[in-house]
Amino acid sequence: MPKIKLSLQTSENKVQGQQQNNTPPPLEDAPIAGYFAVGLALLGLITTGYIFILLSFVASIIALLSGHILWGILALMLSFAGLMISPALVTFLGAAWLAFNILI
Question: Tens digit of pLDDT for each residue in 29-82?
């Protein structure tokens, strides 16, 4: 039985003497901070808002600063919507507004 020579190069590459470059092109920077911010904002809309909405604000600022403008703005809009429908956060905002007006 004849031996079969195994190789990762094709016979065309052997003839031409070139090595084949099979590495994929580098991927663009994925907007992980934006994904994280939008996910936290959505969690804040459907669960306890006073935890996830505040985290979403921070993550959306990080997304904006890292150059993911679309995801950062979307997360800010969702966070603002979550802020307005969360009774605890609206109470904190009202108490802060009242304290500010009393002190002035």
Answer: 788 889 999 999 999 999 888 889 999 999 999 999 998 999 999 999 999 999
Report the phi/psi class of residue 67: left, alpha or beta, with left for phi > 0 and alpha for psi in -120 to 50.
left
User: d(Cα 85, Cα 92) in Å, to the nearest integer?
Assistant: 13
Cα dist. 70→14, 16, 25, 36 in Å? 48, 48, 25, 13
**In a 3-state reduction of DSSP, which class is residue 72?**
helix
Q: Where are the domains of the chain?
A: 31-103
Contact 37, 62 (CB under 8 A): yes
pTM comes to 0.66
Burial class (CB in 10 A: 0-12, 13-18, 19+), 81: middle
State how far the Cα of 77 lies from the Cα of 64, in Å rounded to an integer: 13
Euclidean distance between CA atoms 39 and 55, whole angstroms: 10
